[in-house]
């Protein structure tokens, strides 16, 4: 891992992913979590403030970045829910089948090298009747914006920690074994190639 990836990128991601409109998008989906929660790509813990302590009993966060997990543990001190962070490879979740009431993923599927197996892992650990909550940026429906996403992606990806601008988020979720039961989508304020967001709820097929 390079000096940039280890020491600079985590701070850039924390700032970029904590911008006002991004936090508003998080605030619309995270409070729906209930019971025992697995957060895929907990990062620096930006979602922690939005969990409802009346509904959530515990949060388990998976993330490969030790520096971001350090930030998450610091933020966890400010909420009334037990939080445990685990530095595991995201595609391999160390949990029994049907272990969690809710699985949550925000602004993470863009970065996972092979997202479908990771989503299949979420399906495996989700209890029957549980919900997969997601809020992810991805491919834009406008052809000219989509073309710009394709052009920019090779330049953007190495600078943004492996983030891809042009992933089809709904298709990935369906390919991972989920049925999307609620979906909102649209542009956040900002450069359109980076700001088309899909947010919703999915259940296991």
Characteristics of this structure?
alpha/beta; 6 helices; 205 residues; Rossmann fold
What portion of residues is helical? Answer: 25-40%
SS content category? alpha/beta
The CATH class assignment is Alpha Beta
Physical arrangement of strands within the biggest beta sheet: 3-2-1-4-5-7-6
CATH structural fold name: Rossmann fold
Largest sheet: 7 strands, mixed
CATH superfamily: Vaccinia Virus protein VP39
How many beta-strand segments? 7
Oligomer: single chain
Mean pLDDT: 93
Q: How do you describe this structure in short?
A:
This protein is an alpha/beta fold and 205 residues long.
Which secondary structure elements does this structure contain, and how are they paired or packed?
Blueprint: H1 3-17, H2 20-29, E1 35-40, E2 56-62, H3 66-76, E3 82-86, E4 100-106, H4 115-125, E5 126-137, H5 143-159, H6 169-175, E6 178-187, E7 196-204
Parallel strand pairs: 1-2, 1-4, 2-3, 4-5
Antiparallel strand pairs: 5-7, 6-7
């Amino acid at each position: 891992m390079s000096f940039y990836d280890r020491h600079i990128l985590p701070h850039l991601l924390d700032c970029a992913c904590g911008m006002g409109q991004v936090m508003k998008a998080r605030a619309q989906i995270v409070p729906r979590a209930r019971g025992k929660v697995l957060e895929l790509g907990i990062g620096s813990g930006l979602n922690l403030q939005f969990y409802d302590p009346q509904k959530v009993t515990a949060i388990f966060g998976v993330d490969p970045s030790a520096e971001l997990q350090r930030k998450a543990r610091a933020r966890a001190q400010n909420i009334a829910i037990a939080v445990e962070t685990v530095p595991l490879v995201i595609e391999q979740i160390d949990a029994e089948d049907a272990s969690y009431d809710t699985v949550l993923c925000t602004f993470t599927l863009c970065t996972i090298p092979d997202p479908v197996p990771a989503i299949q892992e979420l399906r495996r650990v989700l209890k029957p009747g549980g919900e997969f909550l997601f809020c992810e940026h991805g491919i834009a429906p406008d052809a000219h914006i989509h073309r710009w996403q394709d052009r920019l992606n090779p330049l953007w990806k190495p600078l943004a920690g492996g983030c891809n601008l042009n992933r089809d988020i709904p298709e990935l979720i369906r390919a991972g074994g989920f049925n999307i039961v609620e979906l909102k989508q649209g542009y956040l304020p900002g450069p359109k190639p980076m700001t088309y967001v899909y947010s919703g709820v999915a259940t296991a097929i």
